[in-house]
């Protein structure tokens, strides 16, 4: 007997969740939600494309010119439409097949769908009650399965190698952009693509989202590298810091404080704990050390198909962490005009606490 595909399993879980939440119809646009549920990631433009799921049917509204390319990724039925016909008839047929014609249906909309797609669907329904995906697809996506874990782990193993190579290549005069190019080439040589890369020398590290430039490395400069690749559809994300030359007491103090904040957040992260409590654990360490005003962002973000997705590890988050959640822990201290230190791990939450994906130690990287 052939084992069910992960997409069959996810569709079954979604239907179970729809029953639990009283949801009649889930509508997804060409997004990471659609890719996660079906494996289909069609080109997104102004032509309406949707995946509709009801208790008894799942099918696509699909522009005819995209159908052949999308067909290789799914066996779910298509309701195609051509440019000269428009999507109205195909959408009506899809809704009929889905059993979504009664008034007052409870409809979940993909919050990342184009507004004109969503309004077209709502206009075709009779007095629908709509909400977004947080208690259906979003909730299910936040708990990673074994295949997702393996993909994220592989991306992080490659990321470790790239970051180690980058620190090893540091020399006086090398520029931030040259280090980015080295990292990107390492990804490419190993079958991955660059997701993002921020290399920060000296005072550049005081900007959490610094865009690498022509700043050249010199003696007694702090170094911050925050980078990630995408491998087999899933990203990695990690930040490591170091010093080129001899760090002063101020840098050592800040580095040690950020490391304590990471450890406190890791200790606080458990299933059933509010995400805000993990943020507080890290923030309290930094505030008590006198750097509270220099911690400029939330403690973390979820990671899956998207590099940023729920749950968000923030003071204002009402998310309750659950086993299988994947998220970052990345406190930082930023001293304008001097340097910044951020240490970041991506973790998966297990029953007894977080498992870190990266195998590269967080210890200070040193170069001369």
Poorly predicted ranges: none
Strand numbers in spatial order across the main sheet: 4-3-2-1-5-6
Tell me the β content: 15-25%
Rounded Rg: 23 Å
CATH architecture of the largest domain: Alpha-Beta Complex
Q: What's the level 1 CATH class of the largest domain?
A: Alpha Beta
Q: What's the CATH H-level superfamily name of the largest domain?
A: Creatinase/methionine aminopeptidase superfamily
Order of helices and strands: HEHEEHEHEHEHHHEEEEHHEEEEEEEE
From the 3D structure, determine the CATH topology of the largest domain. Answer: Creatine Amidinohydrolase
Number of strands: 18
Can you summarize the main beta sheet?
6 strands, mixed
Helix content: 25-40%
Distance between the termini: 60 Å
Mean pLDDT: 96
Please state the overall shape, judged from the principal axes of the Cα atoms: elongated
Number of helices: 10
Structural class: alpha+beta
Number of domains: 2
Explained architecture:
The protein is an alpha+beta fold and 368 residues long. The protein has ten helices and 18 strands. The strands form five sheets. A six-stranded mixed sheet has the order 4-3-2-1-5-6. Strands 7, 8, 9, 10 and 18 form a five-stranded mixed sheet that branches. Strand 14 and strand 15 form a beta hairpin. Helix 7 packs across helix 8 and helix 9 packs antiparallel against helix 10. The longest helix is centred in the middle third of the chain and has 23 residues. The chain is elongated. The N and C termini lie far apart (60 Å).
């Amino acid at each position: 007997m052939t084992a069910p595909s992960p997409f069959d399993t996810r569709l079954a879980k979604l239907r179970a969740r729809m029953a639990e939440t009283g949801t009649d119809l889930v509508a997804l646009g060409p997004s990471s939600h659609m890719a996660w549920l079906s494996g289909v990631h069609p080109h997104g433009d102004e032509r309406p494309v949707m995946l509709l799921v009801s208790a008894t049917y799942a099918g696509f509204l699909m522009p005819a010119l995209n159908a052949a390319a999308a067909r290789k990724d799914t066996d779910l039925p298509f309701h195609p439409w051509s440019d000269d016909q428009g999507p109205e008839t195909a959408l009506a047929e899809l809704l009929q097949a889905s059993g979504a014609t009664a008034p007052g249906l409870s409809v979940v909309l993909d919050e990342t769908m184009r507004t004109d797609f969503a309004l077209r669907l709502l206009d075709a329904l009779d007095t629908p009650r709509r909400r977004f995906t947080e208690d259906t697809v979003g909730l299910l996506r936040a708990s990673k399965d074994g295949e997702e874990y393996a993909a994220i782990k592989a991306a992080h193993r490659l990321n470790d190698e790239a970051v180690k190579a980058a620190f090893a290549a540091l020399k006086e005069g090398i520029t931030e952009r040259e280090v980015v190019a080295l990292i990107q080439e390492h990804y490419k040589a190993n079958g991955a693509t660059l997701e993002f890369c921020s290399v920060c020398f000296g005072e550049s590290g005081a900007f959490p989202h610094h865009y690498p430039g022509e700043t050249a490395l010199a003696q007694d400069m702090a170094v911050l590298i925050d980078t990630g690749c995408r491998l087999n559809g899933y990203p990695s994300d990690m930040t490591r810091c170091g010093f080129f030359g001899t760090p002063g007491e101020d840098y050592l103090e800040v580095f040690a404080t950020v490391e304590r904040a990471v450890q406190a957040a890791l200790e606080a992260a458990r299933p059933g704990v509010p995400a805000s409590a993990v943020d507080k654990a890290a923030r309290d360490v930094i505030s008590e050390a006198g750097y509270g005003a220099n911690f400029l962002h939330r403690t973390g973000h979820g990671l899956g198909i998207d590099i940023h997705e729920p749950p968000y590890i923030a003071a204002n988050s009402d998310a309750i962490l659950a086993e299988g959640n994947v998220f970052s822990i990345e406190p930082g201290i930023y001293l304008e005009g001097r340097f910044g230190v951020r240490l970041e791990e991506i973790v998966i939450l297990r029953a007894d606490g977080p498992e870190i994906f990266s195998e590269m130690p967080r210890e200070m990287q040193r170069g001369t």
